[in-house]
Amino acid sequence: MFSVAVKPKPPDLYVDGSLVQNATILGPYTEGSTFILDCRSSGGRPPPLITLWNGTRTLAAKSHVQTTENGASDVIVTARFVLSRWDLESRLECRVQSNATLAPMVKWIKLDIHGE
């Protein structure tokens, strides 16, 4: 059976469960606190590849894929980490890659972190 790739929706970023706007600076956070970042995209077929980045390195993350009745996929990727002064002004990115897009769709935030 031949199937056409379907472009996923642009990603949404969530911090501690709350939707955040693209290209914003969040904080201030305290160094040593736990930070939870979710990236969600829906409607892609096959499921898009979602990766989370801190600058030039990927973040360890858990991925959850749910397939809808029409065969499209909802994907949620979650990273949980402890903030350090090295995260100050870091650009945290969500990148969604799909066979149906030429380039990854990217959304990002920056963090304001205060030392203890």
From TrEMBL:
Keywords: Disulfide bond
Residue ranges occupied by any CD80-like immunoglobulin C2-set domain in the UniProt entry: 29-100
Protein name in UniProt: CD80-like immunoglobulin C2-set domain-containing protein
Native species: Araneus ventricosus (Orbweaver spider)
